């Protein structure tokens, strides 16, 4: 209401023109002869608009100015996802050494993990991810927004939340979780590790049997039935072993 009063008495039928995106900091537009700016603190600083210093807001904020004068703020309060705390605990339990949050939100919503970097633009997220990659440890990144697409592409493993994720994030990711539930992350890791273990078992078993068959053939012990077992028999046993991944 304060924004409406400051700009115009009646917003019905107001035509918004000359909308300009300000490099990820917000937008400016013309509405009923007034210049409207909506964005973050960086946009206000760039336009030399004074913002009250006593604002103490937790969440994502959109500062609004009309004709160069600050008139109010739109606050999008953040809520912790259901199961987020449980998911982080399980990730620690399965061997994830460090959790880092890269977010465009303020400090308060991000303060529940090992390390966090807040108020980031998409380019800032990529820069910080590059620093994590320099530590020579595998890095997985989980995101669901358009701004996360560049980071999902650059990470060793990009994981998108498919239920609520944007199309850009889903397309850029290596793995897509079809439910918007962070508790699926440790489950996905457990499935991946079990699958990889079964693959290694099958490879070692197949190569060992074939090598043994070759040795026996060289000394004249193995016959055609040995060759058939080393080929078809090993394949059947590997498929049976792989079925364990369904459990």
Characterise the protein shown here.
Helix 8 (184-218) runs antiparallel to helix 9. The relative contact order is 0.07. The chain is built from nine helices and ten strands. The chain is elongated. The chain is an alpha/beta fold. 42% of the residues lie in helices and 21% in strands.
Briefly characterize the structure.
This protein has 247 residues and is an alpha/beta fold.
Chart the SSEs and their pairings.
Layout: H1 2-7, E1 16-21, E2 26-31, E3 34-39, H2 41-46, E4 60-66, E5 69-76, H3 84-93, E6 100-102, H4 107-110, E7 115-117, H5 122-133, E8 140-143, H6 149-154, E9 157-161, H7 167-172, E10 175-177, H8 184-218, H9 224-242
Parallel strand pairs: 6-7, 8-9, 9-10
Antiparallel strand pairs: 1-2, 2-3, 3-4, 4-5
Helix pairs in contact: 8-9
């Amino acid at each position: 209401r304060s924004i409406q009063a400051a700009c115009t008495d009646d917003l019905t039928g107001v035509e918004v023109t000359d909308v300009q995106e300000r490099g990820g900091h917000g937008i400016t537009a013309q509405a009923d002869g007034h210049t409207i700016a909506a964005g973050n603190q960086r946009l206000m600083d760039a336009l030399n608009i004074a913002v009250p210093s006593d604002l103490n807001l937790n969440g994502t904020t959109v500062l609004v100015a009309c004709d160069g004068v600050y008139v109010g703020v739109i606050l999008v309060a953040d809520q912790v996802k259901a199961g987020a705390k449980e998911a982080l605990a399980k990730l620690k339990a399965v061997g994830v050494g460090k959790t880092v949050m890269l977010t465009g939100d303020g400090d308060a919503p991000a303060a529940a993990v090992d390390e966090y970097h807040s108020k980031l633009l998409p380019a800032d997220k990529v820069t910080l991810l590059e620093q994590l990659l320099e530590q020579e440890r595998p890095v997985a990144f989980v995101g669901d927004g358009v701004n996360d697409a560049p980071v999902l592409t650059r990470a060793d493993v990009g994981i998108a939340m498919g239920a609520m994720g944007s199309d850009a994030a889903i397309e850029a990711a290596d793995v897509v979780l079809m439910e918007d539930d962070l508790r699926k992350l440790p489950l996905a890791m457990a499935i991946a590790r079990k699958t990889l273990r079964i693959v290694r078992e099958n490879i070692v078993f197949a190569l060992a049997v074939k090598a043994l068959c070759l040795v026996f053939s060289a000394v004249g012990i193995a016959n055609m039935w040995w060759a058939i077992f080393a080929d078809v028999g090993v394949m059947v046993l590997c498929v049976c072993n792989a079925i364990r991944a369904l459990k």
